[in-house]
Amino acid sequence: MNDKLEKKYISKDNWKRVLNKEEVYSLFKYEELEGEVSIIKINQVTEPLYKRYNDISVKLADNGYYWLQLAIKNKNYWITAMYDSNKKLIQYYIDITKENIIRQQGESYFYDLFLDIVKLSNEKIILLDEEELMDALNNNVIDKEEFEFAYKEAREIIDQLETNNFKPIRVCEYYLDKLSSNFNKGI
Fold first, then answer.
1. pTM
2. CA-to-CA distance for 148 and 37, rounded, in angstroms?
3. Cα angle, residue 122 at apex, residues 117 and 123 outer, rounded to 5°
4. Which of 38, 43, 87, 131 has the fewest other C-beta atoms within 10 Å?
């Protein structure tokens, strides 16, 4: 494994903006996809999180918001679905990964390959961090093969998103209500 790649965990324990949160983790199997799914209910933030995509400003985190993550075994992407306090989709954020390590109880993680894809609730698809990927190549953090692999994976996902054929979205929709119902039970 490339030891220069950043390792990112499903638990988001180092998220300083979030003062209070509830989390639920579960291993999942949905048709041929399996891995770990988590949902975080953000109860209190220091301040809301906004992201600007060209001319669009999107609020991604605030009190009462939900972040659902899918860590999928044998895939080279990691999905974070972000929802407002009414569980209305804000966006899907898809990290391209070198490898996903599936564990349980918030211990799953991935090795980040820099390139990211966003699909907003209005269906707009945006490819992000191409300059970070190029910098990683130029600074020998990744090699040419990893660089080309990241683009190949991103192109395949974008094609599936454009044709509404990206199955992990159905997994996110399924687990949103299934896992968030645990917050009301005091689990």
1. 0.94
2. 28
3. 45
4. 131
41 contacts 20 by C-beta, under 8 angstroms: no
* Residue 174: both structure tokens together: 């399924």
Q: Is the pLDDT of residue 28 over 60?
A: yes
Give residue 81's identity as a one-letter amino acid code. Answer: A
In sequence order, what are the beta bridge partners of 94?
Answer: 79, 117
Question: Whole-angstrom Cα distance, residue 183 to residue 187?
Answer: 6
What are the helix (H) ranges across 27-143? Answer: 130-138
Q: Can you tell me which residue has the tokens 């953090």?
A: 141
Q: CA-to-CA distance for 78 and 157, rounded, in angstroms?
A: 11
Domain ranges of the chain: 7-184
For domain 7-184, which CATH number applies: 1.20.120, 2.40.380, 3.40.50, 2.160.20? 2.40.380
